[in-house]
Amino acid sequence: MTRLHFRPIYLIFAALYFTQGAVLAYITNFQKPYLKAQGISLEAIGWLTSALLLPFILKIFLGAWSDRVSLFRLGHRRPYMLSGLLLSTICFAWLSQIHPAQNFSLFAICIFTACLGIAIFDTCADAWAIEVSQVDESAPIQSSMMAGRAAGLILLSWVFGQLAHDFNFSRVFVTLSGLCGLAWLIVLLKVREPSGPREAPSWSAQFRPLTAYFTTDRAFFVGYALLYSIFSFGLDGLITLHWAENLKLTGEGLGNYGSLRGIGAVIGALLAGWCAWRLGRGRTARLSLALLGTAGLSLLLIESASTAIYAGVLWGTAWSFQETCYVILAMLMADRHAPATSFALLMVFSNIGTSIGEAFASQFAQAHGYPSVIAACAIGALALSTLMPWLARRPSLANSMSDLNNGRLEIN
């Protein structure tokens, strides 16, 4: 196997996805408490939260447009990334001047538009990564992206907490605007369209990958995407609920657990990239599921709140390892003639599984108890890991699950 050489572009990917982690830190940790404190009803908050998911659900259409249309005839990636980040920069700066209690409609429109800008940027950044990389670079690139996003989530969660406590949320929005502006400068100075002639695919050709996933072999990959995300996010959504109810873990303890889980997520992302490079993608895929299941079962052995906090590193590592492994495989599965469309499609499969896992795991936990459902998800992940060698031998998946050695493909 050839040696892995560090390239400065890996730092560019990490820096760009650090901004995504910062936006995620606000949306997931602070928006609901902030709006509730402003007197916004829980129903309105719920509708807004659901609406903010829409741009990311529609990424497949954003990707199709990017693959097909050269924006201002300047390219298919860079001008979209710049436009999306500029939109977010302006909207976050505007949000710092809006009081939700006085004009919630304007606040909702502005935060939705900011998230739309991030979704446009994210879609085209993924496609750009596929276009400018070699086939065997998927592991370090996705590792850099996932680690950068996790680092942004950890650091900015702490920063936003301090800003919101010492000042007010206008400083949070100004910070987000500044980070988006910094990412805009990075794209402007460092991102270039892939060289060489590029023929835009027809609309029918762009959505051909959608029908391809109904063929027998590719349907197995869809099954893997759905099942791994059901088990992974089903587990993830129950852990803190289980500990808060049965171990009486306090809010401060949950915050400390979240920070340590974020540190584990950085470790897991970097470790997954290294393992995919050194051990091969097939072995790493099996290892990721085995690690996820083993970590899930290990959490059931924890009997004290103090121990539970430090288990955040273990679970964060296992969860991020599996998530990074999937995006590495998805990057290799993507059609390089329409990378934005096909990669977004692969993320849709994972997101469907995530929705199923988070929705049904909580319902089953109410009926059968948290430990039983956690154990079921963990055992499911272990069982899925035993199927990976067979899955890797499906003809249409060979390139993504194998390594290229001496001009021939070998299943690990």
Question: Your description of this structure?
Answer:
The structure is a single chain. This protein has 412 residues and is an all-alpha fold. It has 17 helices and two strands. A two-stranded antiparallel ribbon has the order 1-2. Helix 4 packs antiparallel against helix 15 and helix 14 runs antiparallel to helix 15. The C terminus is likely disordered.
* CATH architecture descriptor of the largest domain: Up-down Bundle
The residue fraction in helices comes out at over 70%
Task: Output the strand order for the largest sheet.
Answer: 1-2
Radius of gyration, taken over Cα atoms and rounded to an integer in Å: 21 Å
Secondary-structure element order, as H and E? HHHHHHHHHHHHHHHHHEE
Number of domains: 2
Specify the oligomeric state: single chain
CATH fold-type name of the largest domain: Growth Hormone, Chain: A
Q: Judging from the principal axes of the Cα atoms, what is the shape?
A: globular
What's the gist of this structure?
By secondary structure, the chain is mainly alpha-helical. Helix content is 79%, strand content 2%.
Key descriptive features of the protein:
Growth Hormone, Chain: A; disordered C terminus; 17 helices; mainly alpha; 412 residues
Present the secondary structure layout:
Layout: H1 9-29, H2 31-37, H3 42-57, H4 59-68, H5 78-95, H6 104-132, H7 138-166, H8 169-190, H9 203-206, H10 208-212, H11 216-246, H12 251-278, H13 281-299, H14 305-333, H15 339-368, H16 370-391, H17 398-401, E1 402-405, E2 408-411
Antiparallel strand pairs: 1-2
